Amino acid sequence: MSVPVLAPGDRVPNLTFPDLEGKTRLLYLEVFGGPILVAVAPDPEDAESRAILSGLAKRASSLDAIKAHRFVLTRKRPSDRVDPKALVMLDPYGDAMKMFRPILNGSDADDARSKASVAVLDANQRLVSLITTETARDPVGTALDVARGVAAAAARDPLRLDRAAPAMILDKLLSDTLCATLVERWEADHQEGTVSDGFKNVTDLTIKRNQEHVIRDPELQRVVVQQIGPRVVNEIQKVFNYRHPLRFEMLTVLSYDASRQDFFGPHRDNLRSEQRRRFALSLNLNDGYEGGELVFPEYGPHRFAPPKGAGAVFSCELLHQALPVTKGRRFVLTTFMIEPT
């Protein structure tokens, strides 16, 4: 069975392998904030793998400066001639390494995959970039540049909060291509938005004003859920410690237009007929507008504004609202994760 290659936005599993001393190591327990580099060097005697290992050693001080964690996955013990200044983990069958080795010519054979690579992850073990020896002359140097950007973004404008809503922002949930496709579906067919009165959906412009399109194309539903599902559900399990089965409800693209003074007033998403709903996802599909932030009035005045392709995930019991868009138009994909019947 083919091992799928990770894409930006995917969370890297908690790699569990023995180190060179035979001690079992778990990636999740080895990191404590900061960018993460996972170097894949299947055969330390190959030129490509040696270049990765020596590159890590050469740039150790620069990686230390940004507090970057480093791990090496390999099938056998590297030569003592090079110390990569990283935690070396042995993946004897190479299955985990396949997640970081893109297939180059459509074959599933090991020799058809990239020879070696360096993956840059954020502090939450989500893939930011995958650099291979085939795509970069100096994969470790390129990875260092990416990791510097990750570290800088994580440190930017920290706030000292005395209250905050229990909601999480996840970036890179949808690709730009899929965001554009969803907006195009809305442009081809949409209608005035509705809101539940507890028994059925009705138009009530005192509570909600927008225009919406329900995604009914089974193939598009599958593609969207396939991309966002693992990225969202894994985080729900970790952040909210919620491990019950969930499935996605309908996918809806909403438009909030400043010229219409569109908004969605304070509401909850699990009243009466929607009591099986557990978590909501509000995923922004564009940028270039102003206003339209999410607010959780029970937990303070802070405004949540995920960038394009990113979304807010929160409990359906939370009171929340979408503020009016003051300039331009905001497109957002909404869905709910519900308990199966």
Provide structural commentary.
The chain has 341 residues and is an alpha+beta fold. The chain has 2 domains: 16-155, Glutaredoxin; 168-338, Jelly Rolls (Sandwich). Helix content is 23%, strand content 28%. The chain contains 7 helices and 24 strands. The strands form 6 sheets. Strands 8, 9, 13, 14, 15, 17, 21 and 24 form an 8-stranded antiparallel beta sheet that branches. The chain is elongated, with a radius of gyration of 23 Å. The mean pLDDT is 93.
CATH architecture of the largest domain: Sandwich
Rounded to an integer, what's the Rg over CA atoms? 23 Å
Say what the CATH topology of the largest domain is. Jelly Rolls
Low-pLDDT residue intervals, each spanning 5 or more residues:
none
The fraction of residues in strands falls at: 25-35%
Give the fraction of residues assigned to helices: 10-25%
Structural class: alpha+beta
Q: How many helix segments? A: 7
Shape descriptor: elongated
Overall tally of domains: 2
